[in-house]
Amino acid sequence: MDDVITVVFLGRLRDVAGTREQKLSVASKTTLDGLLTLLDAQLPGLAAQLSEPGIRVVLNKVLRPLSADAEIGPNDEVAFMPPVTGG
Question: What is the pTM of this model?
Answer without folding.
Answer: 0.87
